[in-house]
Specification:
Helix content: 25-40%
Strand content: 25-35%
Radius of gyration: 21 Å
Structural class: alpha/beta
Order of helices and strands: HEEEEHEEEHEHHEHEHEHEHEHEHE
Strand order of the largest sheet: 8-9-10-11-12-13-14-15
CATH architecture of the largest domain: Alpha-Beta Barrel
CATH class of the largest domain: Alpha Beta
Distance between the termini: 45 Å
Number of domains: 2
Number of helices: 11
CATH superfamily of the largest domain: Aldolase class I
């Protein structure tokens, strides 16, 4: 639910906001833990990410650690902030602060008698899911790498060879950029990239307008920060990404409900030599509380995925380092 719609519903319900911390507990194989709400609770029998309400004066991080220990018997060793969701149920208006939990100790035990199951986010086979978790599931299906084309650097033929290798080894989300090329060349290149990506089940986004993205057959559109600033709404027939450089940009992307944002530059990068780098602390501050997943961009490599996640990123966006040479 968009924040303004949620706020209106909350006002009708007296304005009370229930703050909740929730954990997306992830195994190394990408499966996540879902718990079933026990009998006697609202939405009993529904599946959700485990967690619970914040106590007065308690931080979301502390509440998550306490709730997961009380509910499931585990001790959290690594919980990274990820995204925030709001939802208005008939019984409550909730704000859920989601964390990615990738390290823990202990064996899982349903202390409230609840069942739990490990699920592949791309193939959930338990129902029903708690309504507030639908957006979270969609976000979990986004890959850890968002690859940006750079054929203008090495030549189209060489780049396409590199692209095929990258797609064969797991790249699944691609932005066609090539800003120095004329429109005819860019469009012809996009058609070739779409055909190549289709062979591997990857999605291609067009850096430009939604109209052009549709005409080319792209899965989505990547908005520049300028396009984000003037957008009144997002198209719902396309995947929508938005370039962000400030916390205000990230909040704007959240308000419009894009599928994900890209926040840059995190580190110094040769493509933007005059830009002031955010640094990891600056990135974390700007991304914190986002309602949409945020990729980190700028001077990053594949080895930076873990540090990016620890600072609140969904993953990393890369240009040169997404397409390794042979």
């Amino acid at each position: 639910m968009k924040r303004d719609a949620a706020a209106s519903a909350a006002a009708a319900d007296g304005g009370h906001l229930v703050k909740v911390a929730a954990g997306v507990i992830e195994r190394a194989d990408g499966h996540v833990l879902l718990a079933q709400r026990p009998a006697g609770k609202a939405y009993e029998g529904y599946w959700e990410f485990p967690g619970g309400k914040l106590e007065p004066g308690e931080s979301a991080e502390a509440a998550l650690a306490r709730e997961l220990h009380e509910e499931l018997g585990i001790t959290v060793r690594d919980a990274s902030p990820w995204l925030v969701q709001e939802f208005v149920y008939p019984h409550a208006h909730v704000e859920l602060d989601f964390f990615r939990v990738r390290q823990w100790e202990g064996e899982f035990v349903g202390h409230d008698g609840q069942a739990f199951t490990w699920q592949d986010p791309s193939a959930i086979d338990v129902t029903p899911l708690l309504p507030a978790n639908a957006r979270v599931m969609a976000a979990l299906r986004l890959p850890p790498i968002y690859a940006i084309t750079c054929a203008e650097d090495c030549g189209e033929a060489v780049f396409l060879e590199r692209a095929e290798r990258a797609l064969a080894t797991g790249v699944r989300l691609v932005q066609v950029r090539e800003r120095t090329w004329d429109e005819v060349r860019r469009r012809a290149f996009a058609v070739r990239m779409i055909a190549l990506a289709d062979r591997f089940g990857a999605r291609v986004l067009w850096n430009g307008s939604a109209t052009d993205a549709r005409s080319l057959g792209c899965a989505g559109v990547h908005w520049t920060a300028a396009a984000l600033a003037v957008a009144a709404t997002r198209p719902h027939d396309l995947v929508v990404a938005a370039a962000c450089h400030t916390r205000a940009d990230v909040l704007r992307a959240s308000q419009l409900g894009v599928d994900f944002a890209v926040l840059a530059p995190v580190l110094a990068t040769p493509t933007h030599p005059g830009a002031t780098a955010l640094g990891w602390d600056g990135f974390a501050s700007s991304a914190r509380g986002s309602h949409v997943p945020v990729y980190a961009l700028g001077g990053l490599e594949r080895d930076d995925i873990d540090v990016a996640i620890r600072h609140g990123a969904h993953g990393v966006a890369m240009r040169r380092h997404a397409w390794p040479p042979a």
